[in-house]
Amino acid sequence: MSSAPVLLWRRLAAEFLGSAFLAAVVIGSGIAAQRLSPGQTGLQLLENAAATAAGLFAIILMFGPVSGGHFNPVVSVADAAFGGLSWRHATAYLPAQVAGCIAGAVLANLMFALPAVTISARHRASAAHFLSEVIATLGLLLVIFALARSGRARSAPAAVGAYIGAAYWFTSSTSFANPAITIGRMFSDTFAGIAPSSVPPFIAAQILGGIVAAGVIKALYPAITPADAAGIIVPHDSQAGRAPARTGYDGALPSADRPSGPVQSP
Predict the structure, then answer these.
(1) Which residue, of 9, 63, 147, 180, has the greatest Cβ tally within 10 A?
(2) Residue 95: exposed, middle, or buried by beta-carbon count in 10 A (0-12, 13-18, 19+)?
């Protein structure tokens, strides 16, 4: 952990840039897949998922040390709810993430010689898609917080990328699991786009998934502390007087980053 808190503007810049790169990867690889494999939907999805998983891994490594590498409002709110990030900073993250994803969508369109903004006509809203987004968001938060609680946060960039890549296939919604990227993908009428009418149900499902995840995390890891939450996705220093103490033990397996057994307050 750094000796001085990272300035808020640097955190917001990291979240904006990371979100922009994420949207550019998701949408750009979708456009490339559509052009390189015309008429082969399964192959297009495979190409899109592989690029997204690898790109997300790299993007988290790039920007995570500054802001934690959230790029997702649900992750930021969950982090604040468990005390790892101040509510002031979490609230500031949200517009930066949304603006970044919109900017990334525009850049992806331009990189493939498309109009800067093309509103998507891909309707995705259905009961199955809603359930898929709840499950996708729930699983994403469980991966993130389980790694932080068990002291394996170093594995988070790879684990998050792998989970999202897998969730492209095991969910019918192709796992958006992120309100900011959902809004951003609305601005590209391409393979990865989503129609504006489908955006509210997707975001509602993602919020519900986040609420369910918070309950499951608390049930599985009752001794989770602000210090644990400050370790998602990439460890970042806690703000607004967040205490680093770990006062309980809930059975989380130790690792090289965490001593075994109960850890007492200093």
Answers:
(1) 180
(2) middle
Distance CA 145, CA 137 (A): 12
pLDDT digits (tens, 9 = 90+) for 225-262: 999 999 999 986 544 334 344 445 565 655 444 444 33
- Block residue for tokens 């008429």: 39
Mind listing the pLDDT tens digit for each residue in 32-83? Answer: 999 999 999 999 999 999 999 999 999 999 999 999 999 999 999 999 999 9
**Signed CA dihedral, 220, 70, 49, 54: sign only:** negative
Q: Which residues contact 134 (CB under 8 A, 6 or more apart)?
A: 205, 206, 208, 209, 212
**Quick check: 209 and 138 in contact, CB under 8 A?**
yes
Strands (DSSP E) contained in the chain are none
Beta bridge partners of 58: none
CA distance 6 to 225: 21
- Long-range contacts, stretch 77-82, CB < 8 angstroms, 24+ apart: 77/210, 78/141, 78/145, 78/210, 78/213, 78/214, 78/217, 79/229, 79/230, 79/232, 81/214, 82/145, 82/214, 82/217, 82/224, 82/226, 82/228, 82/229
Nearest-angstrom CA–CA distance, 48 and 32: 8
pTM exceeds cut of 0.85? yes
What whole-number distance in Å separates Cα of residue 157 and Cα of residue 76? 16
Which tokens hold the place of 145? 């917080």
Cβ contact 107:20 at 8 Å: yes
